[in-house]
Design a protein that fits this description.
Elements lengths: L1 H5 L12 H7 L3 E4 L5 E4 L1 H5 L12 H4 E5 L6 H5 L6 E5 L2 E12 L6 E6 L4 H8 L12 H36 L10 H13 L6 E9 L1 H8 L1 H18 L5 E6 L2 E7 L4 H15 L3 E3 L2 E3 L2 E9 L7 H17 L5 E3 L4
């Protein structure tokens, strides 16, 4: 423990950060020596391994796999990704996604890698029975978990109330406009949404973004349809996270999605949005210990406020642009009208 603490000696005043302070500030941290061997772990990270004292002295890459950036197979690869957002997973619990960042210690004595649960917070709390004591006092995770639980309870109560008020009619209408697998809107909802947009007196420009997954069939063929469903659900979550409340995300069937982006400054903003979506969809997706790799190709049609195109026209133009994207090597986007 002394060796681990001495690595963190301050450059001014000669003060030391002792292990208890470090554990309080970063309970999910791991200290590595210059060979990638663990010399100290935070208490919460240790708890993920049932408090196994043998963590100290182990190679970090035997315990944790890094999925993004790709290609982290040895300690030198990890050192090359300093200060870069990392996607990681425990090798003994591959379904749990972790976020991480690595920084170099003073005098090149090793690395400090700090982990967090990110979107896996709820699963981690349930699996390891974590409490507020397992998080840093400055970490908002506990408050976030509370908010999630409150929101879930409120949403459940709201749904129950709606069910009592509208009964089976409300349920039937919801099913008619919702994709059952992803929870996204479906084609019928898309038609209604675009019709309302085009009837607005103060209508703004909007974009119809057609997204088709690359290599999705390979996932289904090699890992099965359950893995394919997991990919579709994860992609749906990415699209929802990247859009706003006034936009619409639709699964029209298979591995095809349509996004309607209502109101934007210029076409460049839409192109940057498309590039960001492609980059996020390309990140690996974990399913039952296996890694799924897909990509995305995109075609875009823009409706200007003065134009009077139908939804079918926009979808055809976006589909033509998507065809060009596919033929350009996939993993790219095209705007309708561009060569």
């Amino acid at each position: 423990m002394v060796a681990a603490v001495s690595i963190l000696s301050a450059q001014q005043g000669g003060a030391l950060i002792d292990s208890s302070a470090l554990n309080t500030l970063l309970p999910m941290h791991v200290l590595l020596n210059g060979r990638g061997v663990i010399i100290h772990v935070g208490p919460t990270f240790s708890k993920l391994f049932a408090g196994d004292a043998k963590l100290v002295g182990a190679d970090i890459l035997t315990l944790v796999g890094f999925d993004y950036p790709r290609g982290i197979a040895q300690f030198s690869d990890l050192k090359a990704a300093l200060s870069t957002p990392l996607s990681a997973r425990l090798r003994h619990h591959t379904g749990l996604k972790l976020k991480a960042v690595a920084v170099e210690l003073s005098q090149e004595q090793g690395l400090l890698v700090n982990f967090s649960f990110g979107t896996s917070l709820r699963e981690a709390v349930a699996t390891w029975r974590l409490t507020g004591k397992d998080f840093s006092p400055a970490d908002p995770s506990e408050e976030m978990l509370y908010v999630i639980e409150v929101q879930s309870a409120l949403l459940k109560e709201s749904r129950n109330l709606n069910s009592r008020l509208f009964g089976q009619r409300e349920e039937a209408e919801e099913q008619a406009f919702t994709d059952p697998l992803t929870g996204l809107s479906n084609r019928r909802a898309l038609e209604r949404f675009v019709t309302r947009l085009m009837r607005k007196r103060d209508r703004k420009d909007f974009a119809v973004v057609l997204l088709d997954l690359d290599h999705f069939k390979a996932v289904n063929d090699t890992l099965g349809h359950a893995a394919g469903d997991k990919v579709l659900v994860d992609v749906a979550e990415i699209l929802l996270a990247e859009t706003r409340a006034n936009d619409m995300v639709v699964r029209t069937g298979g591995d095809e999605f349509v996004l309607v982006i209502d109101g934007f400054e210029d076409s460049q903003q839409i192109l940057e949005f498309a590039q960001r979506i492609i980059q996020k969809v390309e990140r690996p997706i974990q399913w039952e210990g296996k890694t799924c790799y897909v990509g995305a190709s995109i075609g875009i049609s823009i409706s200007h406020s003065a134009a009077d195109k139908t939804l079918d026209t926009h979808l055809q133009q976006a589909d033509d642009a998507l065809y060009v994207s596919k033929n350009s090597g996939r993993g790219t986007f095209r705007l309708a009208g561009d060569n």
